[in-house]
Structures are given as structure tokens and as C-alpha cells.
Write a structure and sequence with these properties.
328 residues; alpha/beta; 3-stranded parallel β-sheet; 11 helices; globular
């Protein structure tokens, strides 16, 4: 595991509970991050040394967003499968390069969108009736970022984060839209509220699925008092159903414990499928797409597709802002 910041505890707990994995090495630039970890683990402050000196089959990458690209590139070059915390990369050109590199290397490149493994979300998916199309979808993803970042202050640096709430929370929300509406989406409208230092603190995004005409609204907020993570579905026959991602999970970030169990389980399944060509499970290496994986309805996690959606949202928002400034 490379990176031992705020989210690492959920990966570490999932690794400890998993019957299919063994954690053998960790890496963080700050040696203080190793405190409390089992004594038998290999410990490194440079991921390149870990790749050279530790006997690992796969690597979880949980470093700041701006380091996803160089670390994942090095892991793939070393011949190891990758599970990277969302976003795949802060720049869409880097995301495309990683997918291309993974395909050339014949290695899984899996982006972790933990909310798709949320129990209430999965229950909502199962409740949707067959044969009744979704007419509209609303995903609300709101929190006070300072409460959630902990010591990882890079979240508030637009260069290191890749932007703000759209760059970091946006991928989870947009992946949920893809899960419910399918992978072909068009961005129709974006409005961003930016702080003085350039970080977008709130976003409102409208999307459409051309194949069905279904529309989606995504609401992101990093200045929300408390926390709200919900998804609401309106069906073509007028029925409405919803899921509260935090329901049934007490404590700060309580829902993440079971979600990262799902992340790790899915990643292991994909690595094993890649090792067994002809087993009946087909992986499109690099993008994270898979058929026959048991992941349920909707497209499988695809870090590149979501990175392209995020880039399209920023391009539209900045284009609208440029037009408004020109008109003014």
C-alpha cells in the first residue's frame, strides 16, 4: 500500500478482514505514518524502493490526487496490478496515458469508487423495477471538507487536488450516475462556486443519457454544515425512490468501512480474472471495464470515463465563466 493518509485506514481494515489478501508492505513519505502498523510489514518512504524490494502482486495507491499519475505509472512499469483511489488522475491526458500503459502492460488498472459499494445504494438498485426506465436522477454529495480532510490539507490546494469538490467528490457522484443511467452521458450545464484561492467549494451539474433521455442532477458542496449523501430516482411512471448513503452507519465516515470491503473484493476478483484468461470472465485491461464480474447492473468502474466527465464539467464551467466575463 502506497500512501497512509486519511482514507488508508479503511483500506487497511479491509485488507485485514479479507481472506484473499495479505498486506506485506507499506509506503509513506512520512515515517510517522507507520506508527501502530504490524511490525512484520516492509516499510518504505519511496514507492520505487517498495516495488524493487518487496514481493507484492498488487498495489493500492492512496496518495494525494496529483501523485496518482506518477505512482500508478511506476507501479504498472514494475509489472504490478493497481487499485488507485479516485480520481484516476488530475488531468484527463494523464488518465488516458495510464489506461494506454496498462493495456500495453496487460495489467489491471482499477479505480476505487467506494460509493457504488454502499449498502443503501445497492438496495436501491435492486428495488428498481425491470422494464420501467429511469426518468431523472439526483445525487447530493455534501460535507464540510475541513472536517473530512484531517491532516491531508492538500485537498484545499487546487493544483494538488485537481480543482476542488468537482475534482474530488465529483468522481464518486458521477460514477453513481453512470451506475444508474449507463455509461453514455452528456454534460449539459455546470455552475461552480469558487473560493478566492480557486478551489471550487460547490457545484451543480446537469447531465443527460442520450440513449434514454434520462436526466441527472449532481449537487456537490464542501461548505455544507454536517453531511448529506443521498441519491433519488424518479421513474417514468412517476414513482420516486431514494437512498441515504449514511443510513444505518453511525459515527464519522462510518459507511466507508463496508464500502472499502467491496472495493477490495472487486479489485481482487479482477486481478484473479486477469490471471485466468479463458475462465469466462473478460477484463478490458486498463479501463476497469469488465463483463461477468458479478458487480451487478450498470457499467463497471471506469476511471477514465469519469475523468473525462470531470474534465468536460470544468471545461463547460470555465467556458460559461469566460462568456459571462466577456459579456460584462
Amino acid at each position: 500500500m502506497v500512501g497512509l493518509g486519511m482514507i488508508s485506514r479503511f483500506y487497511l481494515a479491509a485488507l485485514e478482514r479479507s481472506p484473499d489478501t495479505e498486506l506485506v508492505a507499506v509506503c509513506d513519505r512520512d515515517p510517522a505514518a507507520f506508527a501502530g502498523l504490524p511490525a512484520h510489514l516492509d516499510r518504505h518512504t519511496d514507492h520505487r524502493l517498495l516495488l524493487r524490494e518487496s514481493d507484492v502482486d498488487a498495489v493500492v495507491v492512496d496518495v494525494p490526487n496529483d501523485a496518482h499519475f506518477p505512482v500508478c505509472r511506476d507501479v504498472l512499469a514494475a509489472g504490478r496490478a493497481v487499485c488507485v483511489e479516485k480520481p484516476l488522475a488530475t488531468r484527463v491526458t494523464d488518465a488516458r496515458a495510464l489506461v494506454r500503459h496498462a493495456r500495453e502492460c496487460g495489467l489491471p488498472l482499477f479505480t476505487s469508487f467506494h460509493r457504488r459499494y454502499n449498502d443503501p445504494v445497492r438496495a436501491l438498485l435492486r428495488r428498481l423495477p425491470e422494464g420501467v426506465p429511469v426518468d431523472a436522477l439526483t445525487v447530493r454529495y455534501k460535507e464540510t471538507i475541513e472536517e473530512h480532510a484531517g491532516r491531508d490539507r492538500w485537498y484545499l490546494d487546487p493544483v494538488r487536488c485537481g480543482g476542488g469538490c468537482l475534482a474530488d467528490n465529483g468522481p464518486n457522484a458521477l460514477d453513481l450516475v453512470r451506475l444508474f443511467l449507463g455509461g453514455d452521458l452528456r454534460v449539459e450545464r455546470v455552475a461552480l462556486d469558487r473560493a478566492a484561492h480557486g478551489v471550487d467549494r460547490a457545484a451543480r451539474i446537469l447531465l443527460r443519457a442520450p440513449a434514454t433521455g434520462a436526466r441527472a442532477r449532481v449537487e456537490l458542496d464542501w461548505s455544507y454544515p454536517g453531511e448529506r449523501k443521498t441519491i433519488e430516482v424518479r421513474l417514468a411512471d412517476g414513482r420516486v425512490d431514494a437512498a441515504d448513503m449514511l443510513a444505518g452507519h453511525t459515527g464519522f465516515k462510518g459507511s466507508l468501512w463496508h464500502e472499502y470491503d467491496g472495493v477490495l473484493r472487486d479489485f481482487v476478483q479482477r486481478v484473479r480474472a486477469e490471471e485466468r484468461p479463458g475462465s469466462g470472465t473478460r477484463s478490458v485491461t486498463g479501463s476497469g471495464l469488465m463483463t461477468g464480474s458479478g458487480s451487478g447492473p450498470g457499467p463497471a468502474p471506469d476511471g477514465l470515463a469519469v475523468a473525462e466527465l470531470v474534465a468536460a464539467c470544468y471545461a463547460m464551467a470555465d467556458g460559461d465563466r469566460d462568456r459571462e466575463e466577456t459579456h460584462a
